[in-house]
Amino acid sequence: MAAIPTYRWRLAPDGLATRRQLRARGLRPGGQDVAAQLERPRRRREPLVAYLYSIEQAKPVRPMTPAKWAALAKANAARRICPECRRDAGYVIPPSLGMCTPCAYPEEQRAA
């Protein structure tokens, strides 16, 4: 098993990019293997590792289909529906509350 090249943080050669950097350019790894890795040292902990991919072998991001857009809209709408009162809250319901603000904090408790 061959070890992949490891570079220090911010010292990677040109032609390599992380997944986020590829995405910012409208690209994706496209099934290629990891070309190298970056290591960012941290005090008293394991270093952070970021995998690098070849920009030349990267493929364009697949476009969103109408079905994918519809599924995304449906998922985002579901995050706005309160499970208690079944109404659209008008905002994404926070997971910490699990329900809309009026259901989480009824009038009786706010007045006291």
Describe the structure.
By secondary structure, this protein is of the alpha+beta class. Helix content is 25%, strand content 23%. The protein contains four helices and six strands; from the N terminus they run E-E-H-E-E-E-E-H-H-H. A four-stranded mixed beta sheet has the order 1-4-5-2. Strands 3-6 form a two-stranded antiparallel sheet. A hairpin with a 2-residue loop joins strand 4 (36-42) and strand 5. The chain is elongated, with a radius of gyration of 23 Å.
Attribute tags:
4-stranded mixed β-sheet, alpha+beta, two-stranded antiparallel sheet, 112 residues, 6 strands
Concise overview:
By secondary structure, the protein is an alpha+beta fold. The chain has four helices and six strands; from the N terminus they run E-E-H-E-E-E-E-H-H-H.
Cα-atom Rg, whole angstroms? Answer: 23 Å
Count of beta strands = 6
* Strand portion: 15-25%
Task: Note the quaternary state here.
Answer: single chain
Q: Ends: how far apart?
A: 67 Å
pLDDT averaged over residues: 91
Helix/strand structural class: alpha+beta
Unreliable sequence segments: none
Task: Order the strands across the largest sheet as they lie in space.
Answer: 1-4-5-2
Largest sheet: 4 strands, mixed
Percent in helix: 25-40%
Helix segment tally? 4
